[in-house]
Design a protein that fits this description.
This protein is an alpha+beta fold. The chain has 2 domains: 3-188, Probable tRNA modification gtpase trme, domain 1 (Gyrase A, domain 2); 198-281, Elongation Factor Tu (Ef-tu), domain 3 (Beta Barrel). Helix content is 23%, strand content 32%. It has helices at residues 19-24, 70-84, 115-119, 138-148, 185-194, 241-250, 274-281, and strands spanning 3-6, 9-15, 38-45, 51-60, 63-69, 90-94, 99-103, 112-114, 124-127, 199-205, 216-219, 222-231, 234-240, 254-256, 259-264. Strand 11 and strand 12 form a beta hairpin. The chain starts with a strand and ends with a helix. Residues 198-269 form the CAF17 C-terminal domain.
C-alpha cells in the first residue's frame, strides 16, 4: 500500500461556537455535507469568482481543519482573521504540518477519505500525523493525479487565475450551489446555470516525452491552454474545451510546443468536448 509524506503543507484549525458558521458563509464547500471521516476540496474566492486560496477541509473533533500549502497559509490566516471580527472563533496555525497520503484498498486507522479521488473511484486517504514506511514519491502521487484529473495549485493553475469550474470543483465536492451566499458565489452560480464554463482540466497524452510545465497547447498556432503537471508522456492541462472539441472533430492537430498530443476529459466527470456532445445528440 503506497504511502507518501508531504513536506509542503500547513494547517489552520478553526474552533469555537461560530467556526462552522463563519466558514460556511465564506468558502465554496458546503460544510453541511462534510462527513466526519472525509476531506473535501474548497476555496475562498475573489468577488469576481476566481480562486484566491485553495485548500482541503475536514473535521477534527469539534474543530475544522483547513489544510493548505505553505506558500498560501500566512495570507489565508490573515484573511480569515480579518473576516472573523468578533465571532467566537479561535484560529491556530500548524506549520509545517504532518500530512501523509495513502493510496490502496486498505484504509489506515484515523484516516480521512479524499473526496476528490473517491469521485474518480479510487481509494485515497489522508492522515494528519507522521507514519512509518512512507516510501512512495511525489512522482507516484503526480501519476495518480494525472490519471484522475486532480489538479494542484501552482502545478496546474495559478491562484487568482482560475475559476472553480476550471479545476472541476463543481464536480468533486468542492463547490456548492445550494448552501446560500459566500464570496464569489453569484459569479460561479451564474456560470453553472448558464453553462458558460469552457476551461476544464484535461488529461494530456503523447507518443513522445512531453515538454515541461508551462508549455503552450495550441491549435494552428492559437493557444488553448498550457501544460501543468507532467510525467513523461502524460500530463494535465487546463484548456478551452470548446476549441479543443472543434479541433478533434475536424482532425486538426493539437501541439504541446512541437509535440502532437491527444486530450481526454477525466471519465468520472461525465463531461464531453462540446463538438463530440453535439455529434452524439445529432
Amino acid at each position: 500500500m503506497p504511502k507518501l509524506c508531504l513536506d509542503d503543507r500547513a494547517i489552520i484549525s478553526l474552533s469555537g461556537k461560530d467556526a462552522e458558521a463563519l466558514l460556511q458563509g465564506l468558502i465554496t464547500t458546503d460544510l453541511g455535507a462534510l462527513a466526519e471521516d472525509e476531506v473535501r476540496p474548497g476555496a475562498l474566492l475573489t468577488p469576481q469568482g476566481k480562486i484566491l486560496f485553495d485548500f482541503l477541509i475536514s473535521r477534527d473533533g469539534e474543530a475544522l481543519r483547513v489544510e493548505t500549502s505553505l506558500d498560501q497559509v500566512e495570507a489565508l490566516l490573515k484573511r480569515l482573521t480579518m473576516y472573523k471580527l468578533r465571532s467566537a472563533v479561535e484560529l491556530s496555525l500548524l506549520t509545517p504540518a504532518p500530512v501523509a497520503v495513502v493510496f490502496g484498498e486498505e484504509r489506515p486507522d484515523s484516516s480521512y477519505r479524499d473526496h476528490r479521488f473517491e469521485k474518480a473511484g479510487l481509494p485515497v486517504f489522508r492522515l494528519y500525523r507522521s507514519i512509518a514506511g512512507a516510501k512512495a514519491s511525489v512522482a507516484d502521487y503526480d501519476r495518480l493525479r494525472i490519471a484522475t484529473g486532480v489538479a494542484a495549485v501552482n502545478r496546474d493553475y495559478a491562484l487568482q487565475d482560475a475559476f472553480p469550474h476550471d479545476v472541476l470543483m463543481d464536480l468533486n465536492g468542492g463547490l456548492s450551489f445550494r448552501k446560500g451566499c459566500y464570496v464569489g458565489q453569484e459569479v460561479v452560480s451564474r456560470m453553472q446555470h448558464r453553462g458558460t464554463a469552457r476551461r476544464r482540466v484535461v488529461i494530456v497524452a503523447s507518443e513522445a516525452e512531453l515538454p515541461p510545465t508551462g508549455t503552450s497547447l495550441a491549435i494552428n498556432g492559437r493557444p488553448i491552454g498550457s501544460l501543468g503537471t507532467v510525467q513523461g508522456k502524460a500530463g494535465l492541462a487546463i484548456v478551452r474545451i470548446d476549441k479543443a472539441g472543434e479541433a478533434i472533430a475536424k482532425g486538426d492537430p493539437i501541439l504541446a510546443g512541437e509535440v502532437p498530443v491527444t486530450l481526454k476529459l477525466p471519465g468520472w466527470t461525465g463531461l464531453a468536448f462540446p463538438a463530440e456532445a453535439d455529434e452524439a445528440s445529432a
